[in-house]
TrEMBL record:
Subunit structure: HflC and HflK may interact to form a multimeric complex.
Transmembrane segments: 76-97
Domain spans labelled Band: 92-271
UniProt similarity note: Belongs to the band 7/mec-2 family. HflK subfamily.
UniProt name for this protein: Protein HflK
Described function: HflC and HflK could encode or regulate a protease.
Region (Disordered): 1-28
Membrane topology of this protein: Single-pass membrane protein
Primary location: membrane
This protein's UniProt keywords: Membrane, Transmembrane, Transmembrane helix
Organism, scientific name: Sphaerochaeta pleomorpha (strain ATCC BAA-1885 / DSM 22778 / Grapes)
Database matches in Pfam families: Band_7
Length: 389
């Protein structure tokens, strides 16, 4: 058989065809490529056909192949192939659940396992049983009213502009970013016949349109913005819960909330004026908060000083009154003993000594007289004056 192969390999016709193929491959490059390719295919086809034709000894290469495998048991080969196919079919029921995922197993379409944990698992091969693995840890992100979805850029329906009316009939354009998770795989897989991203979009659109009509445009763009975001999240979640979708919204964020372009400048001016007003109010509040406590402190200090002075005056007056009362008591006692005139005169002298400490005081009994002369220039006067008898 080896001799026959070597004879076939060295056949002049076979060698001639090979040479012709090589010549065709190196043909004039100016000849069209398509024509040369057709010629090469035609030559190769002829070589293959001649290789399977019977040679001089009446045998073909196909007969050689049959002879090479004739010593093998065909039934053994078939059984081995069947066993291999059965083994592959049985092993097709092996599946893996990654961390953060939940597996759901169905048998002929009926759910038989709803919470398959992470790890390597087995279920009966298809079509008896099938598994679906859902990622419940992944935080999915969807955009509403944005020119192109970042999560699903190839959605056929395409994102639409989110434009709503406020409570005071002004138009507002919204761009909302929604983050959500799958918290119930069974409900997510079997309760909704609708793309999850589209269901989230529509629920958020409905919530924004309904809630924006309750507030004025100025509040939506400024003070009520955060509260509106929270209300939109709660409202959209209630819509999803109504469908028993198994979807939980984590957050809704207004990436943009702005008026239409034609009136955007006017709204910006109003917003700027409002910010200036708020700044002035804050500055005034700050000034008041710094001045009022200082004034209150000074008032407390003045009031404390006044109270101290008043108390000192009261104490002084009380001391003077106490001293006067003591003198009065002594006066009344002495008046009874020495007479009222003597007591008055003694008190008068004591007071004069205090008022005029450097003046000499002379006490003259009433029965005596003293000649007091006051020299004043050229004339002399006496005191007390002389009286004509």
């Amino acid at each position: 058989m080896n001799d026959r192969h070597s004879k076939n390999d060295s056949s002049p016709e076979f060698e001639a065809d090979s040479k012709q193929v090589a010549e065709d491959m190196n043909a004039n490059k100016s000849e069209p490529v398509l024509n040369r390719l057709r010629q090469v295919i035609h030559r190769v086809r002829g070589m293959v056909r001649k290789g399977f034709e019977s040679q001089e000894d009446g045998l073909s290469p196909l007969d050689d192949v049959k002879s090479a495998f004739k010593h093998l048991d065909l039934r053994f080969i078939v059984m081995a192939a069947i066993l291999l196919i059965i083994l592959v079919y049985i092993l097709s029921g092996v599946y893996t659940v990654q961390p953060g995922e939940i597996g759901v197993v169905q048998r002929f379409g009926r759910v038989i396992a709803t919470n398959v944990p992470a790890g390597l698992h087995y279920r009966l091969p298809w079509p008896i049983e099938s598994e679906t693995v859902v990622n419940i840890a992944q935080v999915r992100r969807e955009s509403v009213g944005v020119s192109e979805s970042e999560e699903h850029p190839l959605h056929l329906d395409g994102p639409r502009k989110l434009q709503v009316l406020s409570g005071d009939t002004n138009i507002i354009d919204f761009e909302v970013i929604v983050q959500y998770q799958i918290n119930d795989p069974v409900a997510y897989l079997f309760n909704i016949d609708y793309p999850a991203y589209q269901l989230v979009r529509d629920s958020v659109r409905s919530a924004v349109a309904g809630l924006s009509g309750r507030s004025a445009v100025d509040d939506i763009l400024t003070t009520a913005r955060q509260q509106l975001q929270n209300d939109v999240r709660d409202k959209a979640q209630s819509v999803l819960d109504g469908y028993d979708s198994g979807i939980r919204i984590i957050s809704t964020s207004f990436q943009k909330a702005y008026p239409p372009e034609v009136v955007a400048d006017a709204f910006r001016d109003v917003s700027s004026a409002r910010e200036d007003k708020d700044k002035m109010v804050n500055d005034a509040e700050g000034y008041r908060n710094s001045v009022v406590p200082q004034a209150r402190g000074e008032a407390k200090s003045i009031l404390s000083q006044a109270k101290s002075a008043a108390q000192a005056q009261k104490d002084k007056a009380a001391g003077a009154a106490q001293s006067f009362n003591a003198v009065l008591a002594q006066y009344r006692t002495n008046s009874k003993i020495f007479g009222e005139d003597v007591t008055k005169f003694r008190l008068y002298l004591e007071k004069m000594e205090k008022v005029l400490p450097k003046v000499n005081t002379y006490v003259v009994p009433p029965s005596e007289k003293i000649d007091l002369r006051i020299l004043n220039g050229s004339r002399t006067s006496t005191f007390p004056p002389k009286l004509d008898r």
